[in-house]
């Protein structure tokens, strides 16, 4: 048996264990409001995960739609993204780790680094207040926009053909992946930065699919444990994401090699920039309101 199939089996076990932990934790809590998913939350999850499977990423698009349509409160977005999209990401990882060849050592090293970064980062992010989340996510989305522009403009070295890394390049990839894993807990997607990292290090861009989806599939259950324990997410919306996300992945996966998504990338870039600015403006307005309140009292 190839080592990657052992990795896939481990991923499935972790996913089942996480969802069991999630269910048992919430079963012990008291829930006053309804938990039936709303149509708008189901739609958001379907759209985001459909394009996520094509490599665009789901975090920025979900954040944008959530802000635009008022799906959940700003401070609940990072936790809801990570908890609700675990199953969709696992389905993606199983598909692309099966069909695309990549060096096993490189795959495991990057996945392990991302998981460690996510676990350490989630403990910090889950304790942030509303304004801190707004500032963090607004800044993260601006960074994501810059990375998207860099990728779309074709700057940097030409894509390589390597299926793996070794030596200093592997060490660089591990360090970057750890940082990206932590930032993912703040709501910045892993896919865009990972695509750029793979290309800059001389690897075949196609191997970014099993790497980035495998990393996210492993790190999200690890990091999401922190959000579930602290209740730092919107349960009703997370349930909607759990239902609609995998369906979208299964429908989009066959289109990966046939669909041109360049124009969609431009649209996503515009929406991400709008959301980043809106987040930062909201944080500034809340700070000003707090200062006025303090002055008047």
List the helices and strands and how they pair.
Elements: H1 3-27, H2 39-53, H3 59-69, H4 77-84, H5 86-99, H6 104-125, H7 130-153, H8 167-184, H9 191-200, H10 208-230, H11 235-252, H12 262-296
Please tell me about this protein's structure:
The protein has 297 residues and is an all-alpha fold. The protein has helices spanning 3-27, 39-53, 59-69, 77-84, 86-99, 104-125, 130-153, 167-184, 191-200, 208-230, 235-252, 262-296. Helix 4 packs across helix 11, helix 5 (86-99) packs antiparallel against helix 10 and helix 6 runs parallel beside helix 8. The radius of gyration is 19 Å and the shape is globular.
Radius of gyration from the CA trace? 19 Å
Mean pLDDT over all positions: 84
How many H/I helical runs?
12
**Number of strand elements:** 0
Summed up, the domain count is: 1
Helix and strand run: HHHHHHHHHHHH
Residue share in β-strands = under 5%
Question: How would you describe the oligomerization state of the chains in this entry?
Answer: single chain
Please summarize the sheet with the most strands: none
Helix content: over 70%
What coarse outline follows from CA principal-axis ratios? globular
Low-pLDDT stretches are none
- Class computed from helices, strands and strand pairing: mainly alpha
Distance between the termini: 69 Å
Summed up, what is this model?
The chain is mainly α and 297 residues long. It has helices spanning 3-27, 39-53, 59-69, 77-84, 86-99, 104-125, 130-153, 167-184, 191-200, 208-230, 235-252, 262-296.
